[in-house]
Amino acid sequence: MAPFTASALIPPSAPPNALSVVVADDVPEIQELVRLWLTELGHAVTCAASGQEVIRLLKHQSFDVIVADVLMPDGDGLDIIVALKKAHAHSKVLAISGGGKYMSASECLRIAKGIGADEMLMKPFNRMQLVDAVQRLGGLGRPTSPPLAFQP
Asked: Which of 25, 37, 53, 146 matches a 20 to 30 Å C-alpha distance to 4?
């Protein structure tokens, strides 16, 4: 069994409407960027590099929103969606994808939607697209903080 490596960052003074979010992506830079964007708004963010890490996390805690890359080694976003819908039906899934060797991003996201993803976002995405989707899924509407001046 692979070592448990998920990392969490909980803001010290989280607002009462803070969401609990897990970000599953095998690209560390995407994990860090999404974590940064969401913690700036006071959300508690846990990062995981594989679907298997997220499935292990779900055995011990629940999350309001799961941001899941559709294609990852060692358990992908599709595995997460199936496990989540069985055990944590109240959690919402934002499927993200840039596609892969044999499938386009739109094909990956169509499959994710078909098995239960609540929203989809194609890579590359910007800060406002991601934040809006997470806030919507968490029932918070638009973000309360203005966007950063720099949005890749």
From this structure: 37
Please write down the HEC assignment for all residues of 99-122: CCCCCCHHHHHHHHHHCCCCEEEE
**Could you give the CA distance from residue 70 to residue 25 in angstroms, rounded to a whole number?**
8
DSSP letter (8 states) at residue 18: P
Q: State how far the Cα of 111 lies from the Cα of 116, in Å rounded to an integer.
A: 9
Say what the pTM is. 0.81
The string of pLDDT tens digits covering residues 74-91 is 878 898 999 888 887 789
Q: Which of 11, 8, 20, 22 is nearest to 96 (CA)?
A: 22
Map out the domains of the chain as residue ranges. 19-137
Q: Is the pLDDT of residue 64 over 50?
A: yes
pLDDT tens for 89-144 read 789 999 999 988 888 999 999 999 999 999 999 999 999 999 999 999 998 765 54
The class of domain 19-137 in CATH terms is: alpha beta
